DNA sequence: AGTGGTGTTATCATTTATGATAACCTCATT
DNA sequence: AATGAGGTTATCATAAATGATAACACCACT
């Protein structure tokens, strides 16, 4: 699997998880202490996030970190 | 949980998984196409890895990516 | 038409991960 | 003592993630 595809899948997964909690991008970004634009970029799969960024998101969504990277490979 | 602790846990997890497969750092690094020094740095918890780096490691170890970030939080 | 909420995209500066190399340590073996 | 395997640490350049801001689009509602 290519890096671009991985980023897309991670982004899509974050979006799905966020929406399932009914939170807006701005809200989630605020909880994570970063800008909504950055979250939009991540969800669009246009970045290769660090584990700390994904961890912040997992904490904000109250889910285990492994859930975010749980993609079919 | 702090970022430093997270890095430590991820590094330790990679080390455990690598050793359970009986592979050396140099070997794993070679498969992943990066230098052994970089893997040492990662296992020591002195870097905040990107998801692509962890993905390469998971592929080399033939385990799901989620296994690497499956830490108790 | 205006307002507010949501999301996108571009851009820039700054921080940091990564790639790469070299020097060093420990330990086992010859 | 010498060699080699495994691992560590420091350093440097380069690539890229992040922080931050601004401008824009879309939609619902008044």
From TrEMBL, chains A, B:
InterPro entries in the record: Cro/C1-type_HTH, Lambda_DNA-bd_dom_sf, TransReg_Diox_bact_type
Protein name per the record: Helix-turn-helix protein
Stretch forming the signal peptide: none
Keywords of this entry: DNA-binding
Cellular compartments per GO CC: cytosol
Domain HTH cro/C1-type: 14-68
Keyword field contains Chaperone: no
Organism (species): Prolixibacter denitrificans
Any coiled-coil regions, as ranges: none
Keyword Nucleotide-binding attached: no
GO MF annotation list: DNA binding; DNA-binding transcription factor activity
Domain of life from the UniProt record: Bacteria
